[in-house]
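Milestone 3.1: sequence recovery, worked example.
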């Protein structure tokens, strides 16, 4: 099955990544055409539009990592807001769609809001990306100055923290400084592969409560 991108139809087979030269206005037109569809995902970098049709494993992995974050935030009795799917846009500069994002320190700034003005509102405190098709570039988050980005790629989680004007790989998360996130995520994926996601999350809750 072939990729199709026309003014009337957009269709990409699962796992396809398509890079096209394009302007901000063309990106906006494609975004309107896609509407609320979850696939394909769309990204804009100056002069370039990228389309990606996720594989089933993409959503499963993103959901599991987000579930881990929610369990840990609840364990710490930390209030938060979370979003998926969500489109982040800065006019003529960037358009990206993180798999999941969390407002933790700044949850009150966007509580109850159905729309977010990215030129005014604070960015998410934590963004989560799963990359199984070489679609993600950590630097796509620099224009928004997202404090922390988790990237799951090649079955490994990497944590990136914003320092000045670049992302630096970290061994732990600023939001869970006393918790070994990498170990927890690896263990949850092991259990999920051997059994299922619910078993992995129940096991995590039991360990936190013990």
């Amino acid at each position: 099955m072939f990729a199709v991108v026309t003014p009337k139809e957009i269709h990409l087979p699962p796992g396809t990544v398509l890079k096209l030269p394009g302007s901000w206005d063309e990106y906006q037109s494609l975004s309107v055409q896609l509407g609320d569809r979850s696939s394909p995902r769309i990204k804009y970098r100056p002069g370039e539009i990228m389309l990606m049709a996720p594989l089933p494993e993409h959503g499963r992995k993103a959901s599991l990592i987000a579930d881990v974050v929610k369990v840990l935030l609840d364990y710490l009795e930390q209030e938060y807001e979370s979003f998926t799917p969500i489109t982040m846009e800065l006019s003529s500069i960037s358009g990206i769609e993180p798999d999941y994002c969390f407002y933790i320190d700044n949850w009150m700034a966007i509580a109850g809001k159905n729309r977010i003005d990215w030129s005014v509102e604070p960015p998410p405190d934590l963004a989560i990306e799963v990359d199984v098709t070489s679609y993600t570039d950590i630097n796509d988050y620099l224009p928004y100055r997202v404090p922390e980005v988790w990237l799951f790629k090649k079955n490994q989680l990497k944590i990136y923290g914003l320092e000045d004007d670049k992302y630096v790989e970290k061994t732990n998360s600023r939001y869970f400084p006393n918790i070994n996130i990498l170990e927890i995520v690896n263990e949850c994926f092991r259990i999920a592969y051997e059994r299922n996601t619910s078993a992995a999350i129940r096991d995590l809750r039991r360990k936190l409560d013990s």
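The mean pLDDT is 89. Helices lie at 24-34, 56-75, 107-110, 181-194, 197-209.
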